[in-house]
Amino acid sequence: MKAIRIQPILAVALAWSFGTHAEAKPPKQPPPPPPNAPSAPDPGSPPQGVPPEQLPRKQPAQRPQPPDNPPLPHPDQHRPQFGDPLPGLTRQQLAEFVDGKEDFEDAENEASGLGPIFNRSSCVTCHASPATGGAGPINVTRFGRIENGVFDPLAGLGGSLQQEMEINAVLHEVVPPEANVVAQRNSTPLFGLGLIEAIPDSQILRNERRRPVDGVLGRAARVADAATGRMMIGRFGWKAQQATLLSFSGDAYLNEMGITNRLFPVENAPNGDDQLLAQYDTVADPEDVVDPATGRGDIDRVADFMRWLGAPPRLPLSNSAARGRGLFQSTGCAICHVPVMFTGPNRAAALRNKEVWLFSDLLLHDMGSLGDGIAQGPADVRDMKTAPLWGLRASAPYLHDGRAATVDDAIKAHDGEAKAARDRYMKLNEQQVQQLLDYLMSI
Fold first, then answer.
1. Which of 146, 295, 386, 408 is most buried, by the most CB atoms less than 10 A from its CB?
2. pLDDT of 126
3. What are the start-end ranges of the E strands in 127-235?
4. pLDDT (0 to 100) of residue 79
């Protein structure tokens, strides 16, 4: 987070790093008390057993400072590259893109509010391939317990997201023995997310209402959006658990880097231990300080970076890839991986009434054995959002846990509602398989 700024928006600078995957957990809460238990202490009071005089005095966060007057990018619109801003941005929007990128790439430290438990110190650590905002090989760990068919995130023990790093070794989180489900989540690319945010809910709901084919019964994820306070259609994250880029950003700041903010102001306690948290959390919350002049913080600037980040560039189709496009349809891949959707009216011309070649219906689907066993928001243990396929050539490894080194491996692992399409793919001859893969490597 940066200190309060007094420079105009066009003098703004590069900024941040979204280690997220945007797959992050809600603030951890203790388990419900047993019947007749005494009332819980005031959350503002010191933890039991720790004298107030032994607790550290919290200091304001010392946030990274932006450079003055960074140069604005001038992408080649004839040969777009991964990591370019959206075409058609205004000068102010380009400045916001550059400013947010700086936050995205900044490394946090303990004085700036990092931790006390976290996964990485910057967003770009997980989202760097093939350019800032891309995918990466880094996984995070989720856990929980399924008992009698009901998923328990074990929130009181630090679930369902395990933070694997800490500012002091005594805070180290482990998967508790009570967990009987452990899953990995891979870093996803963020290219084109502003276009996805600009797709109206009505279009996603139209996908939900389409006539079922091959037993495909996708459903929209209806979520309470932290940024707007409204029920909206989720579209970000492996479980479509976030509806807006601002909530996606705030959630990742808290859960991936331990930076509290106005949307997610409660720090995560290591394995649910509030006493340890009180002893080692030395920075005042929220750590992402909002500039009173603009009402904006780092989570807003990073949301802007993602909003103005261009879509993956498509390649011209070779003869082989052109034949593969037909196979993509005939095998049934396009039932869930809907090639194109459209944005609606928007204040930003760069987002208004645009084609979005994302190759996803943005719905949750029962993926059978390919589900990760974690229930999150409206998504059950076998539900996963249809992953957008655009830019596939630059986002290996594949699937939610990165288990697939190749696209061929990923297709063969499909199950549940995707089983019929997978079985058709398995019946293709060697030449047809190559044609389909050539197409997927072009989109």
1. 386
2. 97
3. 139-147, 150-152, 160-162, 165-166, 181-186, 221-224, 231-234
4. 85
DSSP code of residue 188: -
**Secondary structure of residue 400 in the 3-state scheme:** coil
pLDDT for position 209: 95
Predicted pLDDT of residue 77: 66
Q: Which parts of 158-200 fold into alpha helices (H)?
A: 193-197
Q: What residue type is assigned to position 126 of the chain? A: C
What letter would DSSP give residue 242? Answer: B
Residue range 173-193, pLDDT digits in tens: 999 999 999 999 999 999 999
Q: Burial-class residue 95 by CB neighbours within 10 Å (0-12, 13-18, 19+).
A: buried
Tokens for 125, please give them: 């650590």
Reported in sequence order, the residue ranges of 312-441 that DSSP labels E, i.e. its strands, are 341-342, 355-356, 364-366, 383-385
3 state SS of 247: helix
161 secondary structure, DSSP code: E
SS3 assignment, position 59: strand
Distances (CA, A) of 21 to 205, 239, 242: 24, 11, 11
Query: What is the phi/psi pair of residue 414, to 5°?
Result: -65, 150
State the pLDDT at residue 48: 62
pLDDT in tens, 135-170: 999 999 999 999 999 999 999 999 999 999 999 999
Using alpha carbons, select from 406, 53, 38, 391 the residue that is nearest to residue 196: 391
- CB atoms closer than 10 angstroms to residue 18: 31
Cis bond upstream, residue 130 (ω within 30): yes
CA 257, 137, 222, 311 torsion: positive or negative?
Answer: positive
Which residues contact residue 348 at a Cβ distance below 8 angstroms, ignoring those fewer than 6 apart? Answer: 89, 93
Question: What is the chain's mean pLDDT, rounded?
Answer: 89
Burial 43-82 (b: 16+ CB within 10 A, else e): eeebbeeeeeeeeeeeeebebbebeeebeeeebeeeebeb
Query: Across the chain, which distance is largest between two alpha carbons, in Å?
Result: 74
pTM over 0.90: no
Q: What percent of the chain has pLDDT over 90?
A: 81
What per-residue string of b and e applies to 394-431 under the rule 16 or more CB within 10 Å gives b? bbbbbbbbbebeebbebbebbebbbbbbbeebeeeeee
